[in-house]
Give the backbone structure.
Amino acid sequence: MKVWNYGDDINTDMLFPGKYTYTCATAEEIKPHLLEDLDATFAKGVQAGDVLVAGRNFGCGSSREQPVVGLKAVGVAAIVAKGFARIFYRAAINQGLLLIECPGAVDAYKPGSKIAIDAAGGQITVDGRAFSFPKLPPEIMAICDAGGLLEYTRKKLRARKTA
């Protein structure tokens, strides 16, 4: 797992440039352009299970879905930040992308730090030092575990049909 570290106010245009909004519709089309104006190495270097650590107001800007769709598609396991823009937060839940607000862990992180996340237990460990965050509601964890709101809803509908 690699940790990608960014600062405050990372907006949706930094995550996915707006100039591609109407030309990239699928996750495969979105992935090569992720963070291209912020970190040219990200799209080629990110791997499934990687984590982003960032400051305040992560995901501010427009309400486009492409940044979240792309981050989920490349397999980002979680984004740990001091805070998230509300529209981005909701879009991430819809896609099943785990977002964790834990300012203490962000402040403790230094390049090369080792991070372990226990989302269900509400704890992040940075270089052996534990930081707690409010446990996510069971419904949000279930949506993330299902891979997003659409899959979560499909699963619930299938369960009702077999009951």
